[in-house]
Structures are given as structure tokens and as C-alpha cells.
Amino acid sequence: MGEDSVAPAPGSLRKTCPMTGEVGVDVDVEWPLARRGDVVPEACTWLREHKPVARIRTFTGDPAWLVCTHELASRVLHDEAFSMSALAEPGGRLQYAPLFPASNRSSVKEMVGAGLRETVMQALSPHAVKEATGAFRRKAEALLDELTAEGPPADLRARFTQPYTASVMSTVLGLTEDHGRLLMDGFDISIMTVPRTFEGAQVNLEKCLARTRAALLAPDAVDAPGLLGGLARFRTENGTTPELDGEITLMINNLFVAGGLSTAAFLLLSLLQLATHREQAEWLRAHPEAMEPAVEELLRYSLAIGDGLPRIAVRDTELGGQAIEEGDLVLVLVEGANYDPAVFPDPHELDLTRNAKDHLTFGAGRHYCSATYLARTHASVALSAVLERMPALRLAIPPEEINWRTGWIKRTPERLPVLW
Q: How far is it, in rounded angstroms, from Cα 420 to Cα 154?
């Protein structure tokens, strides 16, 4: 059912804080929205039309503003009044409980002082990704060889998108495939959306960091491909400290998580859309030259981002007629922006010929994702391989029987059984 057919979302709901049990201020809509990744949440139209800046309570019970139109979402992502880096400051409002210390929220920007930014950006550059594209395709073909040899049905998440993404990220970062699988398996714990932390999250983080640190400090690391080799050579040529080694280790892990998490979820939902929009899939298979704009439309259409893009207001301001105070948490509802009919006519129609370049799936402004070329290439290679090898791709179960994961940062099926 599309969002245009729904009844208005209720306003002025009372929300209880899971941390304290205290009943909080009124909210305009329950959060999070529906977790199905194949149906636009029913509240989106109502929010855009009646509450473009809506009151919600996050997973931790903190108050936040939910921004639902493309115009206002773009402003939040571009305006310096709304900061991403401020999210790591202690005592601030939270989107969900951090499963690692705030001091561990390392970014490429923080590596500038150590002289590492250039090394990182070279590893993620279009040139480096193009050189690795052959390896991406070989991995996709090898996985499809296994699936087609066994025959349908098969779970695309476990047998294709997860191992393929782990391999792609390992190739770019210079990790072994076993190392990549270990980090990918850790996603199930490390990026949950929960009201409070738990022991297993820290144990998982320590396990992943220990594996990465050992790879960085290994004698042969300087000969490794990808980012790991570049960083190991940087250490050798410029000297290092235990603290810097810790930052480098954390950065490698964070890049794997940030890149692998988003690309795996997007690829899986893209395959779901192609399996349920058979005419669109057939058209794309017959027009492989159209893959680039098709990926942009699939990015717009994707509902993978299940919890909004967060920012903190660093000064008092105004947004859509609503007063925003310094320290307020603001969440950009990406599906609200990407399905805004003011920007995308007939937004519920998947149209692989659409010019969807204005989607906000990668964010915008200063924090526009630096690995967008990698994300697009990752998807293009995999989708091309699947369309060629599985021309009759379709779901093996009714769409309404797909089990959608809850308590996780992305909307994603637990399994995606398919026929071909």
C-alpha cells in the first residue's frame, strides 16, 4: 500500500523514556517509523503536509525534531547551524545508545593533523576503485557460480550480498577476506538501535580492533594492498606512537563499518526491488548502459536508512517555522525527502530512467559521503552480474512474508529467498 492512501498520523502522543520511566513531552509521531523496507512508512505524507518539523522521542527517550521535506532536509544537511561532529560531545541528546565510547567516533577529518587524510582519500578515490573493479566482478561471479550450481531457492543476503560486500570492503581496505567476514559478522551487534549499552557490544568492538591492529602491526603489512598497506607504509616512513596506532586501527574499522553497512543494505534492497519490478529489471538487463542512472533511482527509492540522519543544532535557529534551540537533536527523514513529490513526480513509481540525482541517500553538504563512488560501483557491478546470471530473478516467498529486522540501524530483511 502506498503512503497516499493512509489516514493522518496521530499527534500529541505521550512518550515514556526507556531510561528513566519518566513520561516525556508530547510527540507528533511514534519513532521509529515502520521497519518494512519495501513499503514507504504510512506517516510520511502526513508529516510532510502537516508536521514537516515534527516532535519525536528517540530510542533513548531524548526529544528530537524530525525533518520530513526535501527542502528542509537539504537545509539541515547544508546549514552550519546543524553539526554532525557535535554528536560526539558528552552529555548531548542521543539518537540511540552508543555501543562504543564517544571518543572512538574517529573520522577521516580527525586524521588531518596526523597527515593521514591523503592516504585515506587515495584508497577511496575513483582511480583506486576502478582498479579494484575487476576483483569485485570476480567475487560476484564466484558467488553466483555457487548459487547457480546448487539451484534455487537461495538466500541472497547470506549467500551473496553479505559475502560480496565483505570482499569489496576488504579489497579496498587491504584486509584478508577472513578479516572482512569477521568485521561483517560484528555488524549484528555493533550497530543496533537500543536504549542502553550492553556487554557484548564492547566485547565485539575489542575483538574487531584486536584483529585489525594485529594486521596493521604485522611485519608484512607494508606490502599489503589497499588502505592497510598505505597506512603501514606511513607508519614506517613517519614514525608512530601507540596512540596513533590505536587511531589508525579504529579508523580502518570505522571505514569498514560505514562502507560495508550502507552498501550491503542498499544492494539487498535493490535486488528486492528488481525481483518485484520484473519489467524494470528486464529493461535494465536489455540496457546495461543505463546502469548509472538506474543506480541513482534505486538509491532514491531505497528505504534502507531506518533511523534518520542526525545533526545537533549549535545555535538557536528556526526551521520550517519551528524554533530550534542550541543543543537540540535534529533527524533528517531520508524517505520523507526522497519521496517528496515536490522534487520527484510520482515518487512511489520506480522509474530507472528518472533523473534522481537530487536524492539525499548519501547526505549532503560538508558531510556528503566521501565513498560515494565506491558505493555506486559496488552496486553496479553486483547488479550487472545478477541481471546477467539470474534473468528471471523473483522472490521465493510472498513479499508480506519477508521478516524485517528490528532494533537495527538499517531496514533490511533477515533473509531474502529468491528463485531465478
A: 9
Q: How far apart are CA 117 and CA 134, in angstroms?
A: 26
C-alpha cell at 193: 538501535
Neighbours of 239 (CB within 10 A): 8
Using DSSP's 3-state secondary structure scheme, residue 332 falls into strand
Q: How far apart are CA 183 and CA 228, in angstroms?
A: 15
Angle between helices 278-286 and 242-276 (to 10 degrees): 110
What distance in Å separates the CA atoms of residue 7 and residue 9, rounded to the nearest whole number? 6
Which residues contact residue 62 at a Cβ distance below 8 angstroms, ignoring those fewer than 6 apart? 93, 94, 95, 329
Task: Look at the chain and count its residues.
Answer: 420
DSSP per-residue string spanning 127-169: HHHHHHHHHHHHHHHHHHHHHHHH-S-EEHIIIIIHHHHHHHH
Query: Sign of the C-alpha dihedral, residues 407, 393, 376, 123?
Result: positive
Strand partners, 322: 319
In the structure, what pLDDT confidence band is assigned to residue 21 with cuts at 50, 70 and 90?
very low
Between strands 394-395 and 329-332, the pairing is: unpaired
* ∠ Cα 20 24 30 (to 5°): 105
User: Among 370, 367, 368, 387, which Cα is nearest to 294's?
Assistant: 387
Contact 374, 135 (CB under 8 A): no
Per-residue pLDDT tens over the stretch 32-85: 999 999 999 999 999 999 999 999 999 999 999 999 999 999 999 999 999 998
Look up the CATH number of domain 3-419. Answer: 1.10.630.10
pTM: 0.91
